[in-house]
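Recall the central idea of this unit: under ordinary conditions, the amino acid sequence of a chain determines the structure it adopts. In this exercise we apply that idea directly, starting from the sequence alone.
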Amino acid sequence: MKNKSGFTLIELIVVIAILGVLALILVPNFMGYLQDAKKTTATSNARAAYSIATAECAKGQTSTAGSTTAAKIKDVVDNDYPSAKVVCNDDAKCTVITSVEVTSSGITATATKGAVTVNGESA
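Accordingly, the structure predicted from this sequence is:
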C-alpha cells in the first residue's frame, strides 16, 4: 500500500480562509494605531516648537539689544521644525507667541498657551 503524505485541498483552503479573517481583523486595528501615533507625534512636535518659540521670545525681551524679531524666532524654530509656522501678536516685534502650527505626515497640530489642537480637534 502507498503511504500518502501532505495536506488535502480542503485543509489548505481552510487555513487560507482563517488567515484572511485574521487579516481583516488586524489590519484596521493596526492602521488606527498608526494614525494615533502620528497624532501623538504631531502634538509633541507642536508643543516642543511652541516651547522653543516662547523661550526665544523670552530671551529677546530680556536682551539689552532690544526685542527679538519675529523672523529670528521663526528661524530658530525652523531649524528643528521646518514645517512650523509661528504666529506672533506683531510681525515686527514678537513679544507674545500666539500659536505655533506644525504639519507632518498630513497632520497639522497647533499649540497655543493652554492647549494643542490636532487637525482642528483638541488633543
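The chain has a mean pLDDT of 78.
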